[in-house]
Prior knowledge:
The chain is an alpha/beta fold. The protein has 21 helices and 30 strands. The strands form eight sheets. The protein has an eight-stranded mixed beta sheet with strand order 12-11-8-6-7-14-15-23, with helices on both faces. Helix 5 (about 85-95) runs antiparallel to helix 6, helix 5 packs across helix 7 (about 150-160) and helix 11 crosses helix 12 (about 315-330). It is globular, with a radius of gyration of 24 Å. Residues about 1-10 have low confidence and may be disordered. 5'-O-[(S)-butoxy(hydroxy)phosphoryl]adenosine (WT7) binds near residues 315, 392, 421 and 521.
Amino acid sequence: MPDDHVTSILTENRVFNPPEGFSRNAHVKSMQDYENEYRHSIENPEGYWASKAEDLHWFRKWDSVLRNDCGFFKWFEGGKINVSYNCLDRHFNNGKKDKIALIFEPEYGIEKKYTYAQLLKEVCRLANALKKQGIRKGDVVEIYLPMIPELAISLLACARIGAVHSVVFGGFSADALRDRIQDSEAKLLITADGSFRNGRVYPLKENADVALLECPTTQKVIVVKRTEKSIPMYPPRDMWLHEMLADSSIEDYCEPEQLNSEDSLFILYTSGTTGKPKGVLHTQAGYLLYAAETFKYIFDIKDSDIYFCTADIGWITGHSYIVYGPLANGATTLMYEGSPTFPAADRFWRVIEKHKVSVFYTAPTAIRALAKEGEELPNGCNMSSLRLLGSVGEPINPEAWMWYYRVIGKEKCPIVDTWWQTETGGIMISPFPGATPLKPGSATRPFFGIDPVILKEDGKEAGINEGGYLVIRKPWPGMLRTVWKAPEKYIEKYYGQFPGLYLAGDNAKKDENGYFWIMGRTDDVIKVSGHRIGSAEVESSLVSHPAVAEAACVPYPHDIKGQAIYAFVMLKKGSQKTEQLKRELSQHVGNKVGPIAKPDKIQFVDDLPKTRSGKIMRRILKAIAENTKEYGNVSTLADPTVVEKLAAERVQ
Ligand code: WT7
């Protein structure tokens, strides 16, 4: 068989039903309930979403639920809303002001807890400080922070005044930060003196200083003190946050801006096929509604839950399921700083024990890494508070699923394997934990209002268990609205292949029970530890090194990361093929993009498999990297002999 992994997934036939007690108390108690509600949501999506939107707070109700403006979708037009009001004031006014909204578990220092009243006050104060710096509705604020409470507070402060936030993951390099700031044209940057990870300090401010040399739009920098490390400050551009907030004219309350439903809420950059990352734009009402509804049903959230998502707020998972979804539901959300394996591989388990976490959401790569450490560490912690587990970011292999289910969930916690994307704003395909029988490795069935289908190249629907393009037929409120400053790209990338239908970029199958099995990307995106890296980004950073003439990167399967990067590198004349240079190139990619983009394997080559028109044939490179020997048709290559040469020198 060409692909054993896919075969083993498809022959997976274990089924795990939700525990009875869980179903009894769940928001959706049975498949019958799910089917009924799903049918209703698909027959009349606008009616369905309008009835759900009634639960939010509106300054003014909408005039139309959905409008298609030449391929650009508008939800709840005419409505006036404020996302931070919905996440904070609404609960403050509804008897939850003393409920814990946010728990912060630091890598270094002491934990912090914020009630809804305290969080509201902190958000208002930062919002007022931003206003004082001249930030107004529609201005872009770049955020480059560690996983500290100020990060969540910054998002909400922007939302309060109608500023558009654009968070850049704190693990990204100066160059990656610069590219994103240049594209978003941010007026102000919020950063910190550094961030803790694995006992070391990562130099955020120094990176920001380098990035800002080439970012003329950014005239102000707010710096959070986190590490006590001494850093250069360049006044009047740079200001310490604690000094700004000490100003007695900063009030504790900030009037929420009344925003249009379709005003921009945030931009988040993500990788695609082309070299530069694209700015995915999400807007106010639809995004909030979708994050809130999916959070409530998929995590089956109750007032008493302590919810812990291990993602970084620098990714969409953190936006939707650490900040907006949980807070829109008045839940208690826990954010942690650091990494899963520091100071030891029981970091998550200790946090769960300490805070009596009941709902836990993490990524397959973390599960695989922690499973490798054995069962002693989790068994050494009391995790009896857990009632529900979640997974996100990449396909979860059945072995990792079983370990998660057995060792962490003690066979009493359903697992929600949630498929979605930066572009979708929220979870699209996932079990309903009180209803859906689980099959390890399948994200199961669509959320309410979501209409996925698998299409073949010719646009016809694929048969049962036949692979194809995963496409979403109906619009949904959390969908991206456009690509920042590139509307033509939005239409072309997402609605070009099958006109009018949203193309996810994933290859998937649907089985005889209507369950979806996601099998990986159809484009040149590589999922390294669940992080989305464009091969083109890594290739351009390699080529920017003086020794490199040409480079091609492909994924290969990796035990822990899921996928890792294999780089084929052609050197310029005169450069020596040394191990030292390999290390240097890897470091170079780390500096240019970020440590997560470093290739695990580099092979120096004299030639690449190209067609006569000069196009690199990646499927051949992939077969070499994976060592499958299934090269397919090589007759269209300019020089077919290159394949055997490359395979013979494959890096083990
Ligand atoms: C891509 C989107 C969604 C938040 C984190 C990632 C892959 C995501 C799953 C899953 C199989 C998954 C897909 C998707 N993916 N979740 N449960 N099973 N694959 O967001 O960085 O935008 O990446 O992640 O390939 O297209 P993202």
